[in-house]
Amino acid sequence: MNDANLRRLQQLIAKYELGEEYHLTIDDLEHSLSTSRRNTSIILKCLSEYRWICWIPSKGRGKLSQFRILVSFPEALEQVLALQLDQGCFNVIPRLLESYGDAAIKALTLATEKHSLFNQQHDHLLITQYPWVDNLEPAKTYRTAEHHILRSLYNTLLVQDHDGNPQASLAHHWKMEGRFLHFWLRPNVLFHDGETLTAKDVAQCLLQLKNIEGPVQSLFDQVSDVQVVGDKQLTIELTHANPMFLYALSSPHASIYRCKRTYFSSGRSAYIGTGPFSLDDWSEERLVLKRHRGYFAQNALLEQITLTDIEGLNDHTLSFNQSGVAEETTINALSYLAVNRREDSGITPEELDRLVSFIKSSSKEFDADMVTDDLSFSPSKLTCSNPIPILTGTVVLTRPRMTIPLLQEMADWLQQTIAKTGVVIEVVELPNISDPSSMSESADLLFIEEVIEQPADYGLYDWLLASSGLRFIFNNSEMKAHCERVRAAVSGEDPMSELKEIEGSLYQQKLLCPLFHGKEKVFNSVEVHGVEINQTGYSDFYKLWIASSEK
Known about the structure:
By secondary structure, the chain is of the alpha+beta class. It has 16 helices and 23 strands. Strand 9 and strand 10 (about 235-240) form a beta hairpin. The protein starts with a helix and ends in a 5-residue tail after the last strand.
């Protein structure tokens, strides 16, 4: 079933009444379809197999064929859309919506309801607008949507509770002695291919982390060695004593996997993990998670989750979600500018400094309650805006694609504030949020929001080592020297004072400019339906459960 078959059915419906029996020659149908006799026979056979028409060819000279249309066009359209949903061929759906308008929207709603009912009965979930997934390498991605999947496929040695405290995960016990961290692994933890997790698997992952170029290499290159003490015991040796490192081991970047991949027909591949879901399929159209029945901890409540991004669905008036049970969490986020003084800039360093100072002083005009001066998120000391300076030159601003309305409003305010000064602004979307250095040679300013990890002490440490802004403005040697300073600080007698001093120096040098503090309660869905249209706002996938169809 495809779009071409639908168009042929439309041609026949325009000529013949639904349900009425006709006695025709093949020439009559050939004329109605405006094609050759051979193609007419192929089309009629195909539509008959779909049971859209009844066509009994004539037998004997001078006899007529029997012909009847069995389904209306909306019914056929619904069948085609239902098949696309069942087979996971999601790229066809936007084209059908565009071609057939309201009829397709109604048909998709009906097909979606039936697909949802099937999913509810089989503990399946389809999320139709999940952000695109390009990278499932734990050490190489910085995107929240991809981290969400990493937490489903893999486990870490430790996890954090709601207060940010380390808790057991793959490791049931741990002990820190200066530069040495000792871990004891749970017995009988199974990978998705049935193999048992060993200390050797963990050691290989952690040693790889320090050598893989990516957004968090600076967090893990402090690992000096990982020693396998026994089948279920290992010791991590750090270059410096660092109590903060336990929190880094709880992040999705520190996911543990077998150094063996699962390959898919699309050419994509991913490491084999131990998490509550395994990766069943991954293509440009969809990503499918299947429940890991041998999981060592809380089992997933859904059998299968299919994630896709049906482009253009928001342009049509399709609404399917209902409210359900949600899980409440609080996040702290910082929106800020990173300032890159590059050689080929269209604005002088002096003018750029004056521009950034004016942006900072004007930030209260956007929202005085959100303005912040540092990661302590204490009330800002700003009193009033500076007079608008008269500046010249061209500034290139890069930023990620803004998917949250408030962030888009911030970005609009920022551009308007820059324009007030007379500076020409050129905006370029950051192509890869995991690699801000890709824009270092062509952009002067980076505007970004980043979630600050908890607890607050670790959040500052993590941000100073892995923030996008620093990776945008520093070259390799500068970043290395900066990270050494951060590591020396956490090994000192008063780590937090020294880390705050490093943070303050970045602001004083006008390398980074904090603007807004986002602190909000986030409600993530736990109770879902068989088909979900929302793009974001889901709890960890293993916590999701299907709402009762009786509600």
